[in-house]
Design brief:
This protein is of the alpha/beta class. It has 15 helices and 42 strands. The strands form 10 sheets. Strands 26-25-23-20-15-14-13-28-27 form a 9-stranded parallel β-sheet. A 6-stranded mixed β-sheet has the order 2-1-12-9-8-5. A hairpin with a 5-residue loop joins strand 33 and strand 34. The chain is globular and about 85 Å long. The mean pLDDT is 97. The structure holds ligand MIG. Residues 171, 199-200, 236, 309-310, 406, 421-422, 455, 480 line the site of ligand MIG.
């Protein structure tokens, strides 16, 4: 049951899709409210063993207790443990204990969450303004609360099937030849590959919707050439538009007043990659339609997917900020005896980027209403995604496009996926990636993933292997790294056999993963679930954070520590342990409920099959277009008849409802003997 409470005069956000939510009457339940200077603090007294789930793309664990968080989309590539804001802003929490209650704070400005940080049992939520909408969800369990929430916010964006292939990216692929080389080296070594990313270097002078003639002399032909090798190119689009006379996007935006404005009515200027840039006013429907229509330029060249970047929006500096710093230095009376003064100076000069003061200095025209950016900060990237998503529905109405964004706010999950931005090649970020996936699913983000191997810092061979061993389960499976770091392609660490083998497991699993992803999208369910969601009465399972259920048939327990030869795993029931050395080379062991040490070498993928469930596997392939789905091996740990309903479609169109899209795989019992059966596929059974 969901109740809505409206505070003050909230700005509409497009987060909620349902139109039949009842307004709560009388006092707010569960939470106490304190009013302070027009703002409201919402407090909840937690029981000792309450778990607090949620917050989507946020720091720390699955259980958010013990941390301080701030929803304010931030470009911060240094995601250390104390950081409070990442790239997304997802204000949904679920309290799971004696009661199960969800709360969603629909507020597009800053909101802070103190979840047992100041006082261990107090949860305090502070919206930065008195104008917001609160949704309170009561459920039978945390899982039930999540499903109600998901139904309320509407169906998640659905990616094309090819986007489940392995994708290779790096900031600094400079030209056609460099990309040809990336593809050649994958194909030569038999490492499967479905896409290569174009980072900002493909553009002409970092100008959106342009392609450098010099580096890509015949872009459409190059797109086709790659396509003929089973590879799609995925270009980046940045939020900022370069200020340059004669550049059509700049000229049009300026002429029609489609950029964000300063208080004096002039177009706001920030320094980003192209140098001086304007920000399109994505809060304005005309600006959205206009910017969205520009994607057509690249779609016409054969492009089938995009990633939207720098849309927090990220700003390196502003003229105002620089002027302020210059003035500060001019007035600075340096005294060697005052270290405090020195640190003040240093701080002033190193915090020129993404200044709150700059975010407070420009304005949007929300279809007639002028709003200060700071008040709707968290919507900016979300509305850029919306602009693209709505445009694709016009430009290619019958074809799914790949789309994901860096900044996000709940609501944008209906238009695109997200990646989790600039992480680092740190083991701790592999663990963070594991723990974040269920939280993202709770908030509607189904097509998502992290930069595998880590974006910043130098990756090592073992870190990339371990990260890929987890990444084979995430819908977005992309190796991406920053310019200037150690090369991070699978072939950059010598011997490639292990990489090939691990990625081959992804392609065997792909029909299952796609099926579970699609079913979860279509029914508002999750792909990655905490153990508690399936084993609610198991008190130990509720505390496990580094094992996840992936769809209905399997549990994963990734290894995330360097030099580990395996790890401890808790089994909430008897399961079949399967270790993949490659898609076809496997070891099996039946394991009983309880705690076990499981061996898993650096080149092996550990996986668990649940009791009386079926995992369908196909033969691996070099790209998704080549996957043969006529034959399946069914791996099962079963002592009675069971069934797996696999969802399968063309992977391109929006034809989701045909009954033809379901393939039954059955294990049937005949005079005490279990055999596999499928009306639609050739099947072979591996039974334990
Ligand atoms: O300021 O386009 O998160 O994935 O490679 C850095 C260059 C801008 C940030 C993105 C990253 C991308 C990079 N971008």
């Amino acid at each position: 049951m969901i109740k809505r409470y409206i505070y003050g005069n909230p700005i509409p956000t497009n987060a909620v899709a349902a139109t039949d939510i009842e307004n709560g009457e009388g006092e707010l339940q569960y939470f106490s409210e304190i009013e302070m200077g027009g703002k409201i603090i919402l407090s909840y007294a937690m029981n000792d063993d309450d778990i607090v789930y949620g917050l989507g793309e946020a720091n720390r664990g699955l259980n958010k207790r013990g941390g301080l968080y701030s929803s304010y989309c931030t470009d911060d590539p240094n995601q250390t443990e104390e950081k409070q804001s990442f790239y997304g802003a997802h204000n949904f929490l679920v309290i799971s204990g004696m009661i199960s209650v969800g709360v969603f704070i629909d507020c597009p400005g800053e909101v802070t969450f103190d979840i047992g940080y100041t006082s261990p049992n107090m949860l305090n939520i502070k919206p930065g303004t008195g104008d917001f909408v609160l949704y309170l969800i009561e459920g039978k369990s945390a899982y039930d609360v999540v499903r109600q929430f998901r139904a309320m916010i509407g169906r998640s964006y659905i990616a094309p099937r090819w986007a489940f292939g392995f994708q290779q990216s790096r900031w600094s692929y400079m030209d056609e030849d460099e990309i040809r080389e990336v593809v050649r080296r994958h194909r030569e070594k038999g490492i499967p590959l479905d896409a290569v990313y174009l980072d900002i270097d493909y553009m002409d002078g970092y100008k959106d919707f342009t392609v450098s003639d010099e580096r890509f002399p015949d872009f459409p032909a190059f797109v086709q050439e790659m396509r003929s090798q089973g590879v799609r190119l995925v270009p980046i689009i940045d939020a900022g538009v370069k200020i340059e006379e004669g550049y059509d996007i700049y000229e049009e935006g300026r002429q029609h007043g489609l950029f964000c404005k300063r208080s004096d009515g002039s177009d706001f200027v920030a320094g980003v990659w192209p140098g001086k840039t304007h920000f399109p006013d994505f809060m304005n429907s005309n600006a959205r339609a206009w910017f969205g229509s520009k994607y057509k330029v690249l779609i016409d060249a054969g492009i089938e997917g995009f990633w939207n970047d720098m849309n927090e929006p990220a700003m390196f500096y502003t003229e105002e900020g620089i002027e302020e710093a210059k003035q500060y230095i001019a007035d600075f009376d340096f005294d060697c005896g005052d270290p405090g003064k020195y640190f003040e100076l240093a701080g002033k000069l190193t915090h020129m980027s993404n200044r709150k003061k700059d975010y407070e200095s420009f304005y949007h025209n929300m279809d007639g209403t002028v709003v200060c950016h700071d008040q709707v900060h968290n919507l900016y990237g979300a509305y850029m995604t919306r602009a693209a998503g709505e445009a694709f529905a016009q430009i290619v109405p019958d074809k799914r496009m790949l789309l994901f964004s860096r900044a996000s706010y709940i609501g944008s999950h209906r238009y695109g996926g997200i990646w989790t931005g600039d992480n680092q090649s740190w083991w701790s970020h592999l663990l963070m990636n594991i723990k974040m996936m269920p939280s993202l699913n709770m908030c509607g983000y189904m097509y998502s993933g992290a930069d595998l191997g880590g974006f910043g810092s130098n990756c090592t061979r073992d870190l990339l292997l371990r990260w890929l061993e987890f990444g084979i389960f995430t819908p977005l499976m992309r190796d991406h790294s920053a310019q200037g770091t150690r090369r991070q392609e699978c072939y950059a660490f010598g011997e490639t056999e292990d990489f090939k083998n691990i990625i081959s497991v992804r392609y065997s699993l792909l029909p299952y993963l796609y099926s579970e992803y699609m079913k979860a999208c279509l029914s508002g369910d999750m792909l990655f679930k905490p153990l508690e969601f399936e084993y609610p009465s198991d008190n130990f399972a509720r505390t496990v954070e580094d094992q996840l259920l992936v769809g209905d048939s399997i549990m994963i327990a990734p290894v995330y520590e360097q030099n580990a030869v395996g790890r401890y795993v808790y089994l909430p029931e008897d399961m079949l342990y399967v270790v993949f050395r490659s898609s076809s080379l496997r070891r099996y062991q039946v394991m009983s409920r309880g705690l076990h040490f499981i061996p898993a070498a650096v080149n092996e993928v550990p996986m668990f099959i649940r009791k009386n469930k079926i995992l369908p596997l196909c033969r691996t392939a070099q790209c998704t277009d080549q996957i043969d789905t006529s034959m399946f091996e069914l791996i099962a740990f079963a002592d009675s008849a069971c069934e797996y309903r696999m969802y399968e479609d063309d992977g391109i169109s929006y034809n989701f409802t045909s009954p033809e899209n379901y393939v039954p795989f059955r294990i049937v019992e005949n005079e005490g003997v279990l055999t596999a059966d499928s009306s639609k596929k050739i099947v072979k059974l591996t039974l334990y």
